[in-house]
What does this fold into?
Amino acid sequence: MRLVKDKNSRKIKLVLVAIVLVTLGLIATVFIGYRHILSKDAKLISAITKKANIAIENFHHTATRDGIKEWTLDARTASVINTQNQAIFQDPAVIFFMKDNSKIYLTADHGVLNIDSNDIEVTGNVVVKNEKYRLTTEQLDYRHSQRMLFSRVPVKITSASSQLTADSMSHNINANQTLFKGNVKGTFGENITL
It folds into this structure.
């Protein structure tokens, strides 16, 4: 009977020692993996810090002229680079305020704001829309001094009853006029206002 107890206690000891060794192995693996991840994050943070003077999450900026709000910009992240007087954005969303109190909404994947001029360049899945029209393109610029939106790459404009494509476009926000150039093609429904 004592022999059976000794065998059982040895088995229990072996199982406990195995559990302790496996646990220590897992802890060592997690620790080594975590240190590896930290070194990668440190390299990434170091690279960003060398280029950007400040990084901000949930960025918001409002541009005014003579006390009148002309546009607001919100972004998921912003990196301000003082040496280039630029702010670089991820997921920028801009609202342009029109004189008739209507609004133009712009979204994109990436954006750059020239801090000195308040000019904006956006790229990647660019969408500009108001209550009637929706413009899509891959790159769009805004010139603050002229209140102009323009794209030098193909654009597509859609509404409930029409569609128009062109190689490039410019839109004067103050005059609410758009000029299309190059391979302009469109289809229009019945209720069109020109």
Summary: Residues 2-51 form the longest helix (50 residues). The CA atoms of residues 58 and 76 lie 5 Å apart. The first strand starts at residue 54 and ends at 65. The two ends are 103 Å apart (CA to CA).
